[in-house]
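If your schedule permits, I should be very grateful for your opinion on a structural question. I would ask you to consider whether the tokens describe a fold that such a sequence might reasonably adopt. Thank you for your consideration; the sequence and its tokens are set out here.
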Amino acid sequence: MEREELIKKAELLKAIANPVRLCLITKLMNIDEANVTYFTNCMEVTQSCVSQHLAKLRSLNILGYRKDGQNVYYFLKDETVKKIVRALYMEEKHG
């Protein structure tokens, strides 16, 4: 594997290793899309904090979004992240 590819994979793992971001991703695994309000109970952080984490995931192309008026709806678009998160929770069920 080339150096650039390894760096990219490491950045992806770093992004989802954050507990708040992992919570956001996990919540999106079971629904098509959601707005910021939907995520406010993730790790008991503020809406502002949730927005910052959503922006980080968007910047890494893990999440996509669509605007509907003033509302922004987020969806999980990275298939690799979906597989990683599923694997994390499968281990939990079978462990």
Q: What stands out?
A: The radius of gyration is 14 Å. The chain has four helices and two strands.
